[in-house]
Design brief:
about 70% helix
Length: about 110
């Protein structure tokens, strides 16, 4: 007669309704899915890295254009001063005012 205090055996099969052949097919599908997911994640990471590199290149180009524009503004300002010294008038008081303010702010270290 069986002992009533004895526990039943532990089932080690994680899917008790499936047999071993179905279980191996399930593992194969799961493994294939994991491989496909990993490959997709690696491809996504590669695309993101390329996008970041492209954005960094665009940032460098933009900063270069900003510096070129600053240099042109300074050149215009200097020409304006030179023309004023010669008694010539230039018909752009707004740009003169802007450049003058910009150079003052730059000399005080308040611009980028």
């Amino acid at each position: 007669m069986d002992n009533p205090n004895k526990l039943p055996p532990i089932n080690t099969n994680p899917h008790p309704t499936t047999n071993n052949s179905n279980n191996s097919a399930f593992n194969h599908k799961s493994l294939a899915f994991l491989k496909k997911s990993r490959k997709q994640a690696e491809e996504d990471a590669k695309l993101l890295a390329n996008r970041i590199a492209l954005l960094k290149q665009e940032e460098i180009k933009t900063l270069k254009k900003i510096e070129e524009t600053k240099a042109k503004a300074i050149e215009i300002y200097k020409l304006k001063l030179k023309n004023e010294e010669k008694g010539k008038k230039v018909n752009s008081p707004k740009i003169f005012s802007f450049i003058h303010d910009f150079l003052e702010a730059e000399s005080q270290g308040t611009t980028n």
